[in-house]
Amino acid sequence: MSKFWIAPSILSADFSRLGEDVQKVLSAGCDIIHFDVMDNHYVPNLTFGPYVLQCLKKYNICAPIDVHLMIKPVDNLIPVFANVGANIITFHPESSYHVDATLNLIKYHGCKCGLVFNPTTSLDILNYVIKKLDVIVLMGVNPGFSGQKFIPSVLKKIVLVKKLINNYSPSTLIEVDGGINIDNIKDIADAGANIFVMGSTIFGSKDYKKIVKKIKCRLNVLTNIKK
Ligand code: DX5
Ligand code: ZN
């Protein structure tokens, strides 16, 4: 039986009151905070860095922080993010000169590590590193912006990765990032996803409690809700 985690992406949060907005989605029942770091080089958008993460920690955000690095080069900022409290750090294989060394660097700094695959990025590298990965992230959209439409061919990719995990690395989790909404989340879960990154669906909703309840209903995990 796989467990599900909901990971709101703060890319869609209200930055004029970020701490409060993040606290609100967590109180609504979300599990992990997804932190999208973009550099206007690896992706055509620019977001935020370690200082913002440090501020969230100062605001007493205790949920695990999942740092999704969309930056190139990638290595320099890994120790910095680890020092300010990142729990999971993931990066795109094509943004690293030496993928294995970058994974080692993340682990050395005490974080869980993962690789992120764009919808058209080949999964071949998994043959060499799958056992090392705590999480495999499959992008449902091309990285760079929230609010895009889920690319349907990614569903097959999730199934493929699930098979690889079952065969070679059963403890590795599958995270899906981008384009997830109420209508497609069940299919994405059925394909094998464990962690659901959702930006616009959650932060774009007027009532976080209501939308999270709806998401959990779709995932059939309502019985696990504590409150
Ligand atoms: C896209 C980011 C995603 C994005 C998700 O590059 O990695 O995390 O914010 O946003 P939605 O759920 O709106 O597609
Ligand atoms: Zn992301």
CATH class: Alpha Beta
Give the H and E element order. EHEHEHEHEHEHEHEHH
What structural category do the secondary elements indicate?
Answer: alpha/beta
Number of helices, counting only DSSP H or I runs of 4 residues or more = 9
Helix content: 25-40%
CATH topology: TIM Barrel
The largest sheet, given as strand count, sense and whether it forms a barrel, is: 8 strands, parallel
- Radius of gyration, whole Å: 16 Å
State the low-pLDDT regions, or none: none
CATH architecture: Alpha-Beta Barrel
Number of strands: 8
* Distance between the ends: 23 Å
Q: CATH homologous superfamily, by name? A: Aldolase class I
Order of strands in the sheet with most strands: 1-8-7-6-5-4-3-2
Taken as a percent bin, the fraction of beta residues is 15-25%
What small molecules accompany the polymer chains? D-xylitol-5-phosphate, zinc ion
